[in-house]
Amino acid sequence: MTTGQRGRPRSFDRDTALEKALRAFWEHGYETTSIADLTRAMGIAAPSLYAAFGDKRTLFEEVVEVYVRRYGGFIGRALTEEPTARDAVGRVLREAAVEYTEPGRPPGCLVINAAVNAAPASAEVAGALRAMREENVRAFASRIRTGVAAGELPEDTDALALARFATSVMQGMSQQARDGAGREELEAVAATAMRAWPEGPGGTP
């Protein structure tokens, strides 16, 4: 006699499973995280994964959206809330030092590191992440241009070059975190980078 439950799909909390997938991709990257790795991490069978999230790429796209909202929001907040471009960029780098080394989470930034070694078959995934990183450059540059217009920075400041400098430091901090650098070490990197910030008119920092 059967119980009538055989063949029913396994029930699970979708948000919890999604967070576990996020951590797997964050730790191991897109290319090397297999469906078997994901089902093991998420605690669900492959048919349930496909039914709830689609294929690996679709799942990853949702993971990135969650990551940006849950863990990457510090960038936009700093660029919006701080009164000067210098304060905004300095805060981003200081907070990156904290975020990239937070205990209990994979080190570094998923958007920066997840598809560094993507195979040609994953070129669209890598391209989407690259576009997100470029969007950060544009956001930094926009904030810097606002600072130039406000007289915080010299009129001849190359906003795009300064934005690429700042985001390059941030990306390097992510890799350093993955290589084992701690919060204090990355905070020192952030402070050193900000010493290269251009002086304002009249020699003001």
TrEMBL record:
A Pfam family it matches: TetR_N
Keyword DNA-binding: yes
HTH tetR-type domain sequence ranges: 11-71
InterPro entries: DNA-bd_HTH_TetR-type_CS, Homeodomain-like_sf, HTH_TetR, Tet_transcr_reg_TetR-rel_C_sf, TetR_C
Entry superkingdom: Bacteria
SUPFAM superfamilies noted in UniProt: Homeodomain-like, Tetracyclin repressor-like, C-terminal domain
Portion annotated as DNA-binding: 34-53
Keywords, ordered alphabetically: DNA-binding, Transcription, Transcription regulation
Name assigned to this protein: TetR/AcrR family transcriptional regulator
The species this protein was found in: Streptomyces glaucosporus
